[in-house]
Design brief:
Blueprint (H helix, E strand, L loop, with lengths): L2 H4 L6 H4 L13 E4 L5 H12 L3 E6 L2 H13 L3 E6 L5 H15 L4 E4 L15 H29 L2 E6 L12 H20 L5 E7 L6 H6 L12 H12 L9 E3 L9
Parallel strand pairs: 1-2, 1-4, 2-3, 4-5, 5-6, 6-7
Helix pairs in contact: 3-9, 5-6, 6-7
Length: 264
C-alpha cells in the first residue's frame, strides 16, 4: 500500500506529535500566516509564536509587518516576514519557498489575507474593484494553497486553513465581490480536501464571526465595536484547528463557536 494511503485514518504526522498539555504546543510546527500585520492575522501570529511555531508572515504594509515581527522576536518567538501581494502567483510561490528554505518544511498555512471592496449593489459595482477583490481573496488564496499543497504532499502531512465569512455561505445584498470571493474559497477548500484526502493533508474553512478589526469597521462603520470579539478570540479557535487537524475534520467548515476542543 502506498505511504500516502496508510495515513488516511490517523492524524497528519506533524500534528500527531502535539500533546495538548504541552507548554509550547506548536514547537514542531512551521506555519505561514497571511495578512499578519493586523487584526486576526496578527493575533494568530503572536499566539502561534508563543506556542512555539516557527513562522513566515506576510502583509501588504511594511510598517505593520515589521511591528509584529519585532513584537514576536522581543517575546522570544521565531518569525520571518515578507511584504507581498498574495494576488501574485510568483510572490505566492516565493513565500512558500521561503518557508522551506528557512525552516526545511511547511506544516501549516493560514489563508487569512483579504480585502473588503465596495459595499454597494451588484448593479453599481465597479468592474475594476470586482477584479481586484477576486484577485486577492480568491486567486491569492488559490496560489498559496496550491504551492503549499505541493510541498505538503511531498512531506505526506500538512494543514491548510482558509479564513472565510458568513457571507461566503449565504449571500447578502451589498456584499458584492467579497461574498462571491468567499463562496469561491469555500468551494476551493472542498475541492482540495477531496483531492488531498489520501495525502495526509487537512483542509478546512473557518468563519471568525464579528471581530474588532479594521475591515469590520469599514463594513459596519456605525456598529458598536465594544460588542465585538477581540481578534485574540478567533486566533484561539485557529490554534485549536491547528492542534486537532486530522482527516476526520478535513473538508468541513467551522465557525468560531464550533471548533473542536478535543481530538476527534
Amino acid at each position: 500500500m502506498p505511504a500516502s494511503n496508510r495515513r488516511t485514518s490517523r492524524q497528519p504526522r506533524a500534528f500527531r506529535r502535539i500533546r495538548v498539555n504541552d507548554h509550547r504546543r506548536l514547537s514542531d510546527i512551521v506555519a505561514i500566516i497571511t495578512g499578519a500585520g493586523r487584526g486576526i492575522g496578527r493575533a494568530a501570529a503572536e499566539l502561534f509564536a508563543r506556542e512555539g511555531a516557527r513562522l513566515v508572515l506576510c502583509s501588504r504594509t511594511a510598517g505593520e509587518l515589521h511591528e509584529v515581527l519585532r513584537a514576536i522576536r522581543a517575546a522570544g518567538g521565531t518569525a520571518v516576514g515578507r511584504v507581498m501581494d498574495i494576488g501574485s502567483a510568483r510572490q505566492a510561490q516565493a513565500l512558500v519557498r521561503l518557508a522551506v528554505r528557512q525552516y526545511g518544511r511547511l506544516d501549516l498555512l493560514i489563508n487569512n489575507a483579504g480585502i473588503l471592496g465596495p459595499r454597494v449593489l451588484i448593479t453599481d459595482y465597479p468592474v475594476r474593484d470586482w477584479a481586484e477583490v477576486l484577485r486577492i481573496n480568491l486567486s491569492g488564496t488559490f496560489y498559496l494553497s496550491r504551492e503549499a499543497a505541493t510541498i505538503m504532499t511531498e512531506q505526506g502531512h500538512g494543514c491548510i486553513i482558509m479564513v472565510s465569512s458568513s457571507v461566503g455561505r449565504a449571500g447578502r445584498a451589498g456584499w458584492g465581490a467579497y461574498a462571491v470571493s468567499k463562496f469561491g474559497v469555500e468551494g476551493l477548500s472542498q475541492v482540495m480536501a477531496d483531492e488531498l484526502k489520501t495525502a495526509g493533508i487537512t483542509v478546512v474553512t473557518f468563519n471568525p464571526g464579528g471581530t474588532r478589526t479594521a475591515m469590520r469597521a469599514a463594513a459596519y462603520p456605525r456598529e458598536d465595536r465594544r460588542r465585538l470579539h477581540d481578534p485574540s478570540v478567533p486566533a484561539e479557535s485557529l490554534l485549536r484547528l491547528a492542534l486537532y487537524a486530522s482527516s476526520a475534520i478535513s473538508g468541513k467548515t467551522f465557525d468560531r463557536h464550533n471548533v473542536p476542543c478535543t481530538l476527534p
